[in-house]
Amino acid sequence: MKSTGIVRKVDQLGRIVTPIELRRALNVSIGDAMEIFVEDDRIILKKYQTEKACAITGEILDDNFESEYAKGLHLSRKGAAILLEELQNATKK
User: Fold this and answer.
1) 64: exposed, middle or buried (Cβ count in 10 Å: 0-12, 13-18, 19+)
2) Is the pLDDT of residue 90 over 80?
3) What confidence tier does 3 reach under pLDDT thresholds 50, 70, 90?
4) Phi and psi at residue 84, in whole multiples of 5°?
């Protein structure tokens, strides 16, 4: 994990202000939905983008792609590999 050196205090309502430099760098705008994850003792924020979520893994990655054969079906490379393996196993039966 990369440290930014930025420290912010939590206010009375539990809010933390995300610095403009980080929002610009990560393309987060006012009104954007943020997804919240917890990993061990960490809180992870990620810009929420349902339109590109992989149908198999749920991953939201920049290199997810839409299927040419099933419009609206988005896959990550990992999801595509899982789906391919499952289809290959199903055709062997």
Assistant:
1) buried
2) yes
3) confident
4) -60, -45
